[in-house]
Amino acid sequence: MEKYDAIIIGFGKGGKTLAPFFAKQGLKVAMIEESKQMYGGTCINIGCIPSKSLEYYAKKSKQQKFQTYEEQDRFFQESIGKKDALTAKLRTKNYDNLNTQKNIKIYNGHASFVSKNLIEIDSENGRVTERIQGDKIFINTGALPLIPSNICGIKESKCIYTSKTIMELKKLPKTLVIIGAGYIGLEFASIFSDFGSKVTLFEASNTFLSREDEDISKAIYDIFIKKGINIIMNAKTQSIEDNRTVCGRSTGGAKVTYTNSQKESITIQADAILVAVGRSPNVCSLGLENAGVKVTKPKNYIQVNEKLETTTRNIWALGDVNGGPQHTYISLDDYRIIRDQLTLTDGSTAKKQQPITTANRRYVPYTVYMDPELSRVGLTEKEAISSGYKIKIFKKPTMSVPRAHQLEELDGLLKVIIDTQTNLILGAALYCVYSSEVINIIRLAMVTNQEYTVLRDSIYTHPTMAEMLNDLLSD
Ligand SMILES: Cc1cc2nc3c(=O)[nH]c(=O)nc-3n(C[C@H](O)[C@H](O)[C@H](O)COP(=O)(O)OP(=O)(O)OC[C@H]3O[C@@H](n4cnc5c(N)ncnc54)[C@H](O)[C@@H]3O)c2cc1C
Ligand SMILES: NC(=O)c1ccc[n+]([C@@H]2O[C@H](COP(=O)([O-])OP(=O)(O)OC[C@H]3O[C@@H](n4cnc5c(N)ncnc54)[C@H](O)[C@@H]3O)[C@@H](O)[C@H]2O)c1
Prior knowledge:
The protein has 475 residues and is an alpha/beta fold. The chain is built from 14 helices and 24 strands. The chain folds into three domains: 2-144 and 280-359, FAD/NAD(P)-binding domain (3-Layer(bba) Sandwich), CATH 3.50.50; 160-277, 3-Layer(bba) Sandwich (FAD/NAD(P)-binding domain), CATH 3.50.50; 364-472, FAD/NAD-linked reductase, C-terminal dimerisation domain (Enolase-like, domain 1), CATH 3.30.390. It is 32% helix and 26% strand. The strands form six sheets. Strands 1, 2, 3, 4, 5, 6 and 19 form a seven-stranded mixed sheet that branches. It has a five-stranded parallel sheet with strand order 8-17-9-10-11. It has a five-stranded antiparallel sheet with strand order 20-21-24-23-22, with helices on both faces. The longest helix is centred in the first third of the chain and has 31 residues, at 69-99. The protein starts with a strand and ends with a helix. The model has no long low-confidence stretch (mean pLDDT 95). The site of flavin-adenine dinucleotide has 36 residues, from helix 1, strand 2, helix 2, helix 3 and strand 4. InterPro entries: FAD/NAD-bd_sf, FAD/NAD-binding_dom, FAD/NAD-linked_Rdtase_dimer_sf, Pyr_nuc-diS_OxRdtase, Pyr_nucl-diS_OxRdtase_dimer, Pyr_OxRdtase_I_AS.
């Protein structure tokens, strides 16, 4: 039986970064990935990169102002093809990155624990099994889409899609219902609306984007309405029934029945239905109980401490599976947490800084990639007030920025919240083109405790969206 210093289960962002780090230290590493289509993990194959690629082409499609569905559909199909070419290229690159390193062996198969240091790998549908042993084991198995069990017909319907399968569509749906107005729901509503689908967005709660301030969520709501997206709040999906076959031919699509705020039961038609109600940890058939690795209840995330150690010594969990924020850059930061503690323990590198842990991780930013993008960091205005801060708000419309005029991207709202006692930035919400870039400048000022005046008085190249900080932060 092969023995390894480190076994990594799952080719996610954290794991694929950890593998070469160990290999460079001369350790023998096994990387186990169950799907050949997933080398590189969710982000590059079925998550961030393909969805952002489609967002890019959807925007181009909108700019083309196609007159017919046939033109829109042709452009959509070409976009899916280009997205597939991009993910294939990145998958190969990711595989080669690890496969070319002499200390790393990649196994293709489903991994499960036999005991705390023994892993079984099932490949070719369980026809071949192999066991390997590891001193240290890292679980990086990601998350899977949640499919609600309380919607009648959801399992049987052929019109149900997840974020993965909707990006494999061969035809642009004329009508699309999206269940869930979270990250995925909002991004895909924007994408498919820009490609030309008629989108209806169902949100079960009574507040649109409740984690944002009302002025920001209202600005987003208004722009979605302007795009022609139908938003139904308090929508409780009751049933999904595929349309019947007529004279031996399927009419396609399905009837979606939901209740609204007034408890009325309404039925609409949809060519496709995207379920986007969250993602749950992928602990399927991992045999965690054989290794004494505990999960949290009721959501089944792998239980970890601030160093990402599980309840079993020498087993760690990183990425979506451990219940932290579900972003690629958090999986990468999880890698840093493990790197820091194992570098320190092994004494191979002298470290001067305090090791990174989840306890000292601050100001996790995020971007929702719709058109325009919403990027956020730190506290909202309502959170700052309820935390007892005395605050000053700087707020301006996106159209106050010269670059926005040049780009013809005038929609949106910019907002920064300042602590008046310290002049430090408490938070920011940028709803504008390229906000995904500018938010990182604001975060850097926050983590390095810069007063907001540093950003206000900084020299920015022109014309850029970043130079908004000169004017936005001026009284
Ligand atoms: C549509 C969509 C868009 C997104 N957009 C963004 C975005 O713009 N920005 C952002 O930061 N985040 C985004 N995310 C979230 C981001 O993709 C995830 O947070 C991130 O990819 C999680 O990475 P991970 O390291 O946890 O593992 P993953 O990348 O999920 O990798 C886990 C791997 O483990 C494998 N695996 C699972 N079980 C086993 C087993 N038992 N044996 C062997 N292999 C196994 C899986 O096949 C998979 O390849 C998006 C997600 C989705 C779905
Ligand atoms: N840009 C990014 O960083 C990015 C993009 C996509 C996904 N992600 C990650 O993927 C994860 C999953 O995204 P998601 O959008 O699926 O989940 P989410 O948790 O962000 O949003 C789910 C939404 O669905 C609603 N909902 C739940 N049940 C419902 C029901 N039965 N009917 C109608 N609405 C219902 C919830 O109220 C919520 O608004 C996120 O946590 C995010 O971290 C990140």
